[in-house]
């Protein structure tokens, strides 16, 4: 089996983010690391975050930092990754790529504890960078400029200290003195030696300053002082004239200002009033904003509250440290304050937010200060506050994030053309069920009913130079309706269009005149209102029209073509006639090329299954240049010109080309390249779009021409980052469409469907899926689908939180205390998009109030995804939490399908995993599955992490025991068990009489149940200790799994062993055979191995296109979706293997990690071709593309076609 | 009552052994007589076994073996019957019988051909095919038998059918019909038995899967490590 790996949706979570001016000048950008992807984001003029560039680096990005050389106008990016190298990147605005400026190797690859890269500290003046590991190693590189102002980097200077754990590293701003770096360190050498544990309990964290002596080129420990043991983060304080220098040490409950030779200035972090006393407050992210006259810090706590920290200072003496409550936003992994007045918060879980500053917190609010710090016998006096609605910030945009995907299933519950992906995402109050559909999201601007059923729609401008369209013209079977576009859209009669006849085409002709083509003639409306009519000869009617701005061709019934041109005076003149052999099915004229007077090509489709390219040049007018035969009659034609590009914002390096697109009656879209000189046709590609013949329209997308194809569903063909993408739109079937541009909507589409006129815009280009979000109450754990009833049953559970009723009660109390009164809103879910308007304290925004850590809340929810309505919600009582779920049909029992839920009560993970009780609940479906009723619950002696139906009974993995249960009257009856599993069972799959058990640390075990002996036997297991996170049953002998180190693998039982097991009539063999070292007698073989680089949490085999081949879809913790497709031919395997090999050689990954080594990070990659690397082929420079293509004996076009083909097989 | 021993065990086992002996002799008797019956198609020799019980309680062979061996116990008798020498003798005898039967059938067929030339056979002869009355009749009988059986989905005991087909040949067409009726009854009984057996087997499996175990007496007892419902079916009752 050979597989092709393709990421369908890039990771959406963010590990770390930095902001700066990476393209130079005044612009402000954000660079985010999404695990293995580096993205450049920029808020546009409307305050929407746009992804400018996205690069997969094939390595784990651990940290990011930016620096600017003195006097420069541009920031560089430093990436700390797992590659054993330090990489300095520069964003190239012209080509829209990251250029690697420096790549310095310092050690081995990987993310081990002494491998540097985890922490990056930058000298604020951009003179040096410190790269630190979690332990021991710290290296300093000196950054400088050479004579031609290029960035240089020195060899590393060591600042190692063994037996030291590092918590944070920053550069200290000390102006142009020697660069200094600060680190929070913990020396554990004594604790290691002392077996009594006394030294360990007395271990103390230190703040250490390292000085880089630029003269001596040497790093020395300059100063070290004790800090609180709760210290976790450092923030640089401006210095060198701008401020007092030094650092802010963020510790549990405190922020402390520290500097060498300066007394500590300490202030408590205000606490939420409802926070339990045992919980501390930690700062998780920080941002510093510096203006000419002032600076302040924004610090966010682990509960989401943002505080503004200011320092009162006199030169370098700090007199007071003030911490003032600012606002509350969801907990973020990074905060970026942009100079444009935006705050970008990269959320830890759930959607990322872009906020605009309304104020900078100058109004009075709860404030703690170092001056008022009170020390009592019990410690420092805390300061309390109550979170409130946003006051200083306002959210203007959010970026969707699926992180983390907890579970995912693919099913066609909505009975659409393609299946939907149901995924459980997020955590705690930000958790949600997201329904993903392949296709682009659209946003509907307007829908209006028309007096009849329209057949076509056009939009026209009055003048070429107009920005917006002037009229919408709608044609009915016997009339034409003209609507003018202004403040409102209304019907007009003074436009000059003939309204008593249907129209065939309406367009702008010449510079400023309009043309209406109707069956009996052409009406030419001049700018001054004069009207010229051209009538068809005899009784013949016009059947088809093709036009561009300067040329018109009409086809009369019988097959005669008449060609008109706009002359110098703006008149429409007949130029040429041509008789075709039969009726014309469709025709189109290529757009007029830049700087030319006419287009050379006319395409004519005939009912004899051919398309002809005719010349429109005066020399050889109406000569047939080329001919292409088709599989079925053409229905629609469209020329699409792709302009030449040398990279830039949204494209890769490619020459100009002209594509002829044909919609065939069989529902196939046929794309073919037209040679721009000779008109020869080549390189045909076809794709089935739907059951109706696609109608093709040209629309504008991001200022470029794109193609809208209307088949049984609409599709958009456009170019995105060098790829031509043909993606379905998530919208209903449309009849006819035209591009639309007005004041309110710059790039829209107007379309007719049924008797309605619809205006919509297409959003989030480049994404494969669009999503629908349904909020959930707690962290979703697992779910089951009920395909017949079209319902989902979800289990949710959270630790350290309050149940909904308790929360509601305490909230009421809080409102009363605040004198706000109940807002009348009794919404216990975290709300949707608009919650922060209605609800002053939405949980999505503020998080749930925190309870003791051993308190669990959990619920079981039955959800109807079509109405997004929860039909039943059972809250588990008494500290019980649900961990596993399955539906089960017990044999010959009366209830039909039942629901089994495995729960644990009072589960604790620290200091040791313990629980007070564990149960399996059995529920009955009531009211046609929309409601649940508890039948009984059975206490078990371990946490049931896996449940499955098996031969009319329930199989449960209870700790290390696999048990078979039957349904009893009052409880489940234990019928059979096997205790030979090594650790904890976390997945069970069954097929016929085989049971595939996944162990949390030891991969898969294949089992068999023998009825005649009532015994469960393990007959095969894996030889590799995999820490299983996801599993899926592929076939009788094969299982697919994902482990917690980010690998996907397939294991298969060898055929002979499988046969032996199946042909063992007595069962003696399986019973008595024993493996070595307590293992099973047989071992499975690993047939596929691939390092995804992200923890795979769910796997499912599904086909995302109708009638397509199935692929294995996986979802990851970082919120990405990918697919593994099995190659169907040996040729493809060879081709992609070679392409991958060349790509590895010619295009090494950006952050210095070797691609092969990355994909083989834990186990050598086996039989998987990395499509993500292959898909970077179009981003290579043209000569490199040609070189690789030559090596493969193909043209670059063919390679692109191959890539497109295989992508189309998946989605 | 212990499964593994105790006072009652040995004696009961002795009784059981004796009873088994008796049954075994019975069984051997039946088997040999039935084979004999089938082989002696002309019915000249009536039911008689291949061995004789001597007055001293021993058994002596008289039919297959030229030297008439004498054995002491039914067990030895049964062992002997499985032995190679006995088998060889038996097969020799069978061979002889079969040969005789084949010769007989051939002659009967030849005589039948001249006697009854069916109208249906005429076209065949025109095409130069020799008529095959024997095969025809056999086919007819089989199809008849199959038709009557088709209502029952269960496997027809083929050996029996084939055996029975051999018989009626000499008795004439009317006897075929009679025989078919008799066969229907027999066939109905047979699948029913099989069905019962299957059902019983399935039930037993269900009980084992539910956690019941069998003791040495064929009784059922509950596995200690398995849980049962209060009203769970007791195989000792339902399978008795």
Annotate the secondary structure layout.
The complex is a heterodimer of chains A (1211) and B (240).
Chain A lengths: L2 E7 L6 E5 L8 E5 L3 E7 L5 E8 L4 E7 L8 E6 L3 E8 L4 E9 L13 E4 L5 E5 L5 E8 L5 E3 L3 E2 L5 E9 L7 E8 L1 H5 L4 H4 L3 E9 L4 E9 L6 E4 L10 E5 L2 E6 L2 E7 L2 E2 L10 E8 L4 E7 L3 E10 L2 E12 L3 E6 L4 E6 L4 E6 L9 E3 L5 E2 L2 E2 L3 E2 L7 E7 L5 E7 L8 E6 L6 E7 L3 E8 L6 E5 L10 E5 L4 E6 L3 E3 L13 E5 L3 E6 L2 E5 L5 E5 L6 E6 L3 E6 L3 E7 L5 E8 L4 E6 L11 E6 L3 E6 L8 E6 L4 E9 L2 E2 L6 E2 L2 E8 L3 E7 L6 E8 L6 E7 L2 E7 L3 E7 L2 E6 L7 E5 L7 E6 L2 E7 L6 E7 L4 E7 L4 E9 L4 H15 L16 H4 L4 H4 L9 E9 L4 E8 L3 E10 L7 E9 ...
Parallel strand pairs in A: 1-94, 23-34, 85-89
Antiparallel strand pairs in A: 1-93, 2-3, 3-4, 4-5, 6-7, 7-8, 8-9, 10-11, 11-12, 12-13, 12-14, 15-16, 16-17, 17-18, 19-20, 20-21, 21-22, 24-25, 25-26, 26-27, 27-31, 28-29, 29-30, 30-35, 32-33, 36-37, 37-38, 38-69, 39-68, 40-41, 41-42, 42-43, 44-45, 45-46, 46-47, 48-49, 49-50, 50-51, 52-53, 53-54, ...
Chain B lengths: L6 H33 L11 E3 L5 E3 L8 E2 L2 H9 L1 H32 L5 H6 L6 H17 L8 H9 L6 H37 L2 E3 L5 E3 L12 H4 L2
Antiparallel strand pairs in B: 1-2, 2-3, 4-5
Helix pairs in contact in B: 1-2, 5-6, 5-7
Notable characteristics:
heterodimer, A: 1211 residues, mainly beta, Methylamine Dehydrogenase, Chain H, DNA polymerase, domain 1, 5-stranded mixed sheet, B: 240 residues, mainly alpha, 3-stranded antiparallel sheet, 5 strands, flat, metal-binding (chain B), SCNM1 (chain B), nucleus (chain B)
Description:
The complex is a heterodimer of chains A (1211) and B (240). Chain A is built from twelve helices and 94 strands. Chain A is mostly beta strands. Among the domains of chain A are: 405-439, no CATH class; 454-692, YVTN repeat-like/Quinoprotein amine dehydrogenase (Methylamine Dehydrogenase, Chain H); 1127-1210, DNA polymerase, domain 1. In chain A, a hairpin with a 4-residue loop joins strand 28 and strand 29. Chain B has eight helices and five strands. In chain B, helix 5 packs across helix 6. Chain B has helices spanning 7-39, 74-82, 84-115, 121-126, 133-149, 158-166, 173-209, 235-238, and strands at 51-53, 59-61, 70-71, 212-214, 220-222. Chain B has 240 residues and is mainly alpha-helical. Chains A and B meet through strand 81 of A and helix 7 of B.
């Amino acid at each position: 089996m050979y597989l092709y790996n393709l990421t369908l949706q890039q990771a959406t979570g963010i590990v770390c983010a930095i902001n700066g001016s990476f393209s130079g000048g005044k612009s402000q950008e954000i660079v985010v690391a999404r695990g293995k992807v580096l993205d450049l984001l920029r808020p546009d003029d409307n305050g929407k975050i746009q992804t400018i560039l996205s690069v997969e680096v094939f390595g784990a990005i651990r940290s990011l930092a930016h620096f600017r050389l003195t006097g420069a106008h541009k920031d560089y990016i430093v990436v700390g990754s797992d590659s054993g190298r330090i990489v300095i990147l520069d964003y190239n605005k012209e080509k829209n790529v990251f250029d690697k400026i420096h790549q310095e190797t310092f050690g081995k690859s990987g993310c081990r504890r002494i491998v540097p890269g985890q922490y990056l500290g930058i000298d604020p003046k951009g003179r040096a960078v410190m790269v630190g590991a979690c332990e021991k190693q710290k290296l300093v590189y000196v950054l400088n400029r050479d004579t031609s102002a290029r960035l240089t980097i020195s060899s590393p200077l060591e600042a190692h200290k063994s037996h030291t754990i590092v918590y944070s590293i920053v550069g200290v701003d000390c102006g142009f003195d020697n660069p200094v770096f600060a680190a929070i360190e913990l020396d554990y050498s004594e604790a290691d030696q002392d077996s009594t544990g006394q030294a360990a309990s007395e271990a103390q964290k230190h703040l250490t300053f390292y000085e880089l002596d630029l003269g001596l080129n040497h790093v020395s420990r300059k100063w070290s002082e004790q800090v609180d043991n709760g210290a976790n983060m450092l923030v640089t304080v401006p210095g060198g004239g701008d401020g007092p220098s030094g650092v802010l040490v963020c510790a549990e409950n405190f922020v402390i200002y520290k500097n060498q030779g300066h007394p500590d200035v300490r202030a408590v972090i205000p606490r939420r009033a409802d926070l339990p006393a045992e919980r501390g407050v930690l700062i998780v992210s920080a941002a510093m904003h510096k203006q000419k006259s002032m600076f302040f810090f924004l610090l966010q706590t682990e509960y989401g509250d943002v505080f503004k920290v200011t320092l009162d200072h006199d030169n370098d003496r700090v007199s007071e440290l003030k911490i003032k409550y600012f606002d509350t936003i969801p907990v973020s992994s990074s905060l970026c304050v942009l100079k444009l007045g935006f705050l970008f918060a990269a959320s830890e879980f759930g959607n990322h937010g872009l906020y605009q500053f309304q104020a900078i917190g100058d109004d009075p609010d709860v404030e703690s200060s170092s001056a008022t710090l009170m020390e009592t016998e019990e410690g420092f006096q805390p300061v309390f506050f109550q979170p409130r609605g946003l006051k200083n910030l306002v959210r203007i945009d959010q970026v969707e994030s699926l992180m983390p995907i907890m579970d995912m299933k693919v099913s066609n519950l909505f009975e659409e053309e393609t299946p939907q992906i149901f995924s459980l995402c997020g955590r705690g109050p930000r958790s949600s069920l997201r329904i993903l559909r392949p296709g682009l999201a659209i946003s509907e601007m307007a829908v209006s009913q028309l007096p009849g059923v329209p057949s076509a729609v056009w939009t026209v401008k009055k003048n070429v130079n107009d920005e917006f369209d002037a009229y919408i013209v709608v044609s009915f079977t016997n009339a034409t309706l003209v609507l003018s576009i202004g403040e409102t859209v209304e019907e007009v009669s003074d436009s000059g269009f003939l309204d008593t006849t249907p129209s065939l085409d309406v367009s702008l002709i010449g510079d400023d005149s309009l043309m209406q083509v109707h069956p009996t003639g052409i009406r030419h409306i001049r700018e001054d209102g004069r009207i010229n009519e051209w009538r068809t000869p005899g009784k013949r009617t016009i059947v088809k029209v093709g036009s561009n701005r300067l040329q018109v061709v009409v086809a009369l019934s019988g097959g005669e073509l008449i060609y008109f041109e706009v002359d110098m005076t703006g008149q429409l003149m007949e130029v040429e006639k041509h008789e075709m052999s039969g009726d014309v099915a469709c025709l189109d004229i290529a757009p007029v090329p830049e700087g030319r007077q006419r287009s050379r090509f006319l395409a004519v489709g005939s009912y004899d299954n051919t398309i002809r390219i005719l010349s429109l040049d005066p020399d050889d007018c109406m000569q047939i240049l080329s001919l292409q035969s088709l599989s079925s009659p053409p229905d629609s034609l469209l020329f699409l010109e792709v302009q030449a590009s040398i990279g830039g914002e949204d494209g890769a390096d490619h020459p100009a080309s002209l594509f002829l697109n044909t919609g065939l009656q069989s529902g196939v879209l046929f794309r073919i390249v037209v040679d721009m000189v000779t008109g020869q046709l080549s390189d045909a590609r076809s794709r089935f779009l739907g059951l109706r013949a696609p109608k093709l329209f040209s629309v504008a997308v991001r200022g470029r021409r794109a193609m809208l194809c209307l088949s049984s569903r609409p599709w958009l063909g456009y170019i995105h980052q060098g790829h031509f993408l043909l993606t379905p739109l998530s919208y209903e079937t449309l009849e006819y469409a035209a591009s639309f541009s007005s004041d309110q909507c710059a790039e829209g589409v107007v379309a007719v469907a049924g008797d309605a006129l619809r205006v919509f815009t297409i959003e989030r280009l480049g994404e494969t899926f669009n999503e629908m979000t349904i909020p959930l109450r707690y962290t979703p754990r697992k779910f089951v689908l009920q395909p017949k009833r079209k319902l989902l049953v979800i289990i949710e559970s959270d630790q350290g939180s309050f149940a909904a009723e308790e929360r509601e009660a305490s909230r009421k109390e809080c409102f009363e205390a605040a004198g706000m009164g109940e807002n009348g809103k009794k919404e216990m879910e975290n709300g949707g998009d608009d919650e922060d308007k209605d609800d002053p304290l939405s949980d999505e925004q503020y998080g749930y109030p925190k309870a003791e850590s051993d308190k669990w809340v959990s619920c079981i929810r039955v959800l109807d995804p079509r109405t997004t309505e929860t039909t039943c919600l059972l809250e588990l009582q008494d500290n019980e939490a649900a961990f596993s779920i399955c539906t089960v049909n017990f044999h010959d029992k009366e209830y039909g399908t039942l629901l089994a839920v495995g729960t644990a009560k009072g589960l604790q993970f620290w200091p040791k995993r313990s629980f007070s009780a564990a149960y399996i609940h059995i529920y009955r479906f009531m009211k046609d599955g929309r409601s649940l009723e508890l039948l009984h619950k059975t206490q078990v002696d371990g946490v049931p992490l896996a449940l499955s139906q098996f031969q009319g009974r329930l199989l449960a993995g209870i700790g290390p025991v696999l048990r078979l249960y039957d349904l009893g009257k009052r409880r489940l009856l234990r019928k059979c068990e096997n205790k030979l599993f090594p650790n904890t069972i976390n997945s069970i799959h069954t097929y016929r009489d085989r049971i595939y058990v996944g162990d949390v640390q030891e991969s898969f075990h294949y089992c068999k149940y023998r009825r005649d002996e009532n015994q469960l036997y393990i007959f095969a297991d894996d030889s590799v200790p995999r820490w299983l996170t996801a599993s899926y049953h592929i076939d009788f002998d094969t299982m697919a799994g994902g482990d917690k180190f980010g690998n996907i693998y397939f294991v298969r039982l060898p055929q002979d062993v499988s046969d032996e097991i199946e042909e063992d009539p007595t069962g003696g063999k399986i019973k008595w055979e024993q493996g070595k070292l307590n293992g099973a007698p047989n071992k499975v073989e690993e047939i596929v191995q691939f390092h995804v680089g992200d923890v795979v949490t769910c796997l499912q085999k599904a086909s995302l296109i109708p009638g397509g081949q199935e692929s294995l879809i996986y979802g990851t913790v970082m919120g990405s979706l990918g697919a593994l497709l099995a190659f169907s031919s040996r040729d493809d395997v060879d081709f992609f293997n070679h392409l991958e090999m060349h790509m590895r050689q010619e295009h090494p990954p950006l952050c210095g990690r070797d691609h092969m080594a990355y994909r083989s990070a834990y186990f050598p990659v086996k039989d998987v071709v990395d499509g993500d690397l292959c898909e970077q082929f179009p981003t290579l420079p043209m000569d490199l593309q040609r070189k690789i293509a030559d090596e493969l004996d193909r043209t670059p076009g063919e390679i692109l076609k191959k890539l497109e083909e295989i992508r189309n097989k998946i989605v | 009552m212990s499964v593994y021993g105790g006072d009652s065990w040995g004696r009961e086992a002795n009784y059981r052994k004796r009873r088994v002996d008796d049954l075994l002799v019975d069984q051997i008797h039946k088997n040999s007589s039935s084979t004999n019956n089938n082989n002696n198609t002309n019915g000249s020799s009536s039911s008689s076994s291949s061995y004789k019980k001597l007055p001293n309680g021993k058994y002596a062979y008289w039919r297959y073996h030229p030297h008439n061996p004498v054995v002491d116990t039914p067990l030895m008798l049964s062992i002997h019957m499985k032995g190679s020498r006995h088998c060889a003798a038996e097969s020799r005898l069978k061979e002889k019988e079969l040969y005789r039967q084949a010769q007989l059938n051939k002659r009967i067929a030849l005589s039948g051909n001249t006697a009854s030339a069916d109208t249906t056979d005429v076209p065949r002869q025109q095409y130069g095919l020799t008529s095959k009355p024997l095969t025809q009749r056999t086919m007819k009988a089989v199809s008849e038998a199959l038709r009557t059986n088709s209502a029952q989905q269960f496997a027809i005991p083929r050996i029996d059918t084939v055996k029975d087909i051999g018989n009626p040949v000499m008795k004439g067409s009317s006897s075929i019909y009679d025989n078919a009726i008799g066969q229907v009854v027999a066939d109905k009984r047979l699948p029913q038995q099989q069905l019962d057996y299957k059902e019983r087997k399935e039930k037993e499996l269900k009980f084992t899967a539910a956690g019941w175990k069998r003791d040495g007496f064929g009784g059922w007892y509950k596995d200690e490590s398995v849980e049962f419902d209060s009203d769970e079916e007791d195989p000792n009752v339902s399978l008795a």
